[in-house]
Amino acid sequence: MIQIQLVAVANRGEIARRVFATCRRLGIETMAVFSDADADLPFVAEADYSARLPGVTPAETYLQGERIVRLVRGSGGQAVHPGYGFLSESADFARAVIDGGLVWIGPPPEAIEAMGSKVRAKELMRAAGVPVLDDLAPESATEADLPLLVKASAGGGGRGMRLVRTLESLPAEIAAARAEAASAFGDGTVFVEPYVERGRHVEVQVLCDQHGNAVALGDRDCSLQRRHQKVMEEAPAPGLADDVRAEMHAAALAAAHAVGYTNAGTVEFLYDAASGRFFFLEMNTRLQVEHPVTECVTGVDLVAAQIAVAEGRTLAEILPGGAPAPSGHAVEVRLYAEDPAADWQPTAGRLARFEIPADTELGLLSRHGIRVDAGFTSGDEIGTHYDAMLAKVVSWGPDRLSALRALRGALRRSRLHGVSTNRDLLDAVLQDRDVATGAMTTSLLERRLVTEFRDLAPSGDPELAPFVAAVALAARDAERRTVQRGIPVGWRNVPSQPHRTVFAVDGIDEPVTAEWYAGRDGYRHPELEDLRVLVATPTQVVIERGGYRQSIDVHIDPVSGQVFLDDDAVVRQRLRPLPRFTDPADAVASGSLLAPMPGTVVKVVLEPGSSVAAGDVVLVLEAMKMQHPVSAPTDGTVTEINVEPGAQVAAGDVLAIVEEHP
Q1: In this structure, what CATH number is given to the domain that contains residue 60?
Q2: How confident is the model at residue 257 (pLDDT cuts 50, 70, 90)?
Q3: pLDDT at 586 over 70
Q4: Are residues 73 and 98 in the same domain?
Q5: Contacts of 321 (CB under 8 A, 6+ apart)
Q6: Domain count, the chain
């Protein structure tokens, strides 16, 4: 048995911070490797040692396995934890670590290889007696087989996955899935299988030592998904019959034994509640994003367990009392930087304020409460090179409904400023009737997004919010005065006319003008006579209206000048003060197709002079590991293409111009 003294994490963001937190508790030193784009992020500063990986693009940095091994060895590192994503399920990287004389905190390369191809994994599971869904040859698919799911053989996270409802669209969706899989995983192999419309995604956490012992550490439900990416996870999986749960755990252990698995891993199943049957989906040969919910209900630090297994300890040493029975219920949601108004596309930019109330961060909860695993802090920059997840917010409570309620409360009290997020979607999910009863399916969220969740937008009073923002700005300007401080705020020669402050407001197409008066008696609204401003500072405005007192938290970003308003129950708004006159340099030609986010142009579909119909794809951007088509807004003619494949673009750049047909 060895004793690990220094762990390097071949990853970034919140998972690197998560591993470091456990290492600090165990007295193990830590090392971070980082890209130029990540140099200022918290995980780099928190490591005992760090090493920059120069000479490649940020997206390629964490895929440089041999260079990472050389850096770790050169620094005196002893072990490598791969986190998840990037090289975490690369058998070649695992071998390079082991051949380099380092300890690999993960399963044997052979187990990774066996489960790395979903096609090969299905064959192994079928031989081991684990139920699987049969693959379909695309050329033999019929209408009776629909719907179908095209899936990447390597990787996961929804990349290279396409739902197909018509046979005519199958070839195009296979081509798109291959392209995305090749970009994300370096392997464009895909396969096709039946799609279970009302299925649930249930997974089992396994832990296996190097001595042939294995245990199932409970199960999780991950059915709430959008674009095949998990949005909410919970443990234990609700509504499973005891016999189904036992069979699923046994199947997961059989899967692990079939490939000689060691360390922590997750076996994922598709569960058909109508029939009570389940089918093997894949085995994630690494720590899962959603591992905190299992840690909450079992009290087991899975990262510490991973390190202990890598050191050669037995399960009897790691879990002296055996696998603990679940205690209470835990729910996790993934907070993403994405824009609901732009079909939930990933967003980039500066986090002006990033505060989530929590009882603990990146570690075990000692009692029921809120845990936050985040990769960012206030002031950090969200780039386009990596996944758009900002944080995992986890609630652990005595029962499921208590955990759901506490999690929703934490989200509502969060202060998330500077980039658009999916916070409002998560809030809606946690209130959903089917989520409350545990009747989730993998298609539920997609259905809700075209019905109840279709018009999610920041909440706020379109008249009150601009007034409050204008008052806060006036209070800030008053505090900044260095002369004539005795003059009342807002004093003017013509008191009969109100002050006017113009804002661009989220969710409203046209600029909004706030009118307000100020004097010795404070601030007042020109029309709402029952509205009283009780407190006005740059960080808080308290108003009273109709006997109801409301305190609104204000944040004026010193960098962008944007005003953010938060009242947990009523107002959540972002407003940008507009200049009185528009700079001509900001104007763009009519019909301009603007980049919705920073990214890389991967494909230009049309040429200048091409006729287009509304919705035709003009070009394709890649950002945050996903491809995003840029389409013509109207019927017309492409008059300009301003970019070519490989070009890096910023949000708002003019990519092309489509002249509308008269």
Answers
A1: 3.40.50.20
A2: very high
A3: no
A4: yes
A5: none
A6: 5
Instruction: Examine the pLDDT at 194 and tell me if it is beyond 80.
Output: no
Q: Are residues 154 and 254 in the same domain?
A: no
CATH classification at residue 190: 3.30.1490.20
Q: What is the 3-state secondary structure (H, E, C) of 212-232?
A: CCEEEEEEEEEEEEECCEEEE
Q: Is 655 within 8 Å of 594 (Cβ atoms)? A: yes
Q: Which residues contact 594 (CB under 8 A, 6 or more apart)?
A: 588, 651, 652, 653, 654, 655
DSSP state of 497: S
Give me the numbers of helices (H) and strands (E) for the chain, helices first please.
17, 39
Does the residue 14 lie in any domain?
yes
Pairwise CA distance, residues 384 & 623, whole Å: 5
pLDDT, mean of residues 203-228: 96
Please indicate, yes or no, whether residues 472 and 556 belong to a single structural domain of this protein: yes
As a three-state string, the secondary structure of 524-567 is ECCCCCCEEEEEECCCEEEEEECCEEEEEEEEECCCCCCEEEEC
Name the 3-class secondary structure at 126. Answer: helix
Residue 366's CATH number: 3.30.470.20
**Do residues 86 and 94 touch, judged by C-beta distance below 8 A?**
no
Give me the amino acid identity at 635: D
Cβ–Cβ < 8 Å for 435, 448: no
What are 318's two structure tokens?
């790691």
Please report whether residue 556 resides in a domain: yes
Question: Which residues, including other chains, have CB under 8 Å from residue 263's CB and lie 6 or more apart?
Answer: 105, 106, 107, 207, 208, 306, 309, 310
Burial of 662 (0-12, 13-18, 19+ CB in 10 A): exposed
* Residues 21, 360: Cα–Cα separation, whole Å: 11
The mean pLDDT of 84-88, rounded to a whole number, is 94
- Name beta bridge partners: 579: none
**pLDDT, tens only, 442-467:** 989 988 987 888 766 555 677 788 99
Q: Give the total residue count for the chain.
A: 662
Tell me, yes or no, whether 414 and 469 share the same domain.
Answer: no
Give residue 587's identity as a one-letter amino acid code: A
Q: What angle do CA 245, 251, 257 make, to 5 degrees?
A: 140
DSSP state of 584: G
| Residue bearing tokens 């409460």 | 369
- Please identify, among 194, 219, 240, the residue that sits at the C-terminal boundary of a domain: 194
Residue written as token pair 């009392």: 321
* Final residue before a domain boundary, out of 194, 209, 239: 194
> How much is the pLDDT for 458?
54
Rounded Cα distance, 148 and 107, in Å: 32
Q: Is residue 235 part of a domain?
A: yes
- The answer to the question of residue 468 being in a domain is yes
User: Do residue 568 and residue 603 come from a single domain?
Assistant: no
- Dig out the tokens for 150 from the structure: 């095209």
Longest dimension (CA), the chain: 88
Residue 562 maps to which CATH number?
3.30.700
Nearest-angstrom CA–CA distance, 174 and 179: 9
Q: How far is CA 606 from CA 366, 641, 653, in A?
A: 58, 8, 18
Q: What is the DSSP string of 127-170?
A: HTT--BPPPB-GGG--GGG-SEEEEESS--TTTT-EEE-SGGGH
Say if residue 169 is in the same domain as residue 65. Answer: no
For residues 239 and 338, membership in a common domain is answered with yes
152 and 62 both lie in a single domain: no
Token readout for 492 is 């003017």
Which structural domain, as residue segments, surrounds residue 629?
588-660
Residue 3 identity (one-letter amino acid): Q
Residue 404 host element (H or E): helix 400-413
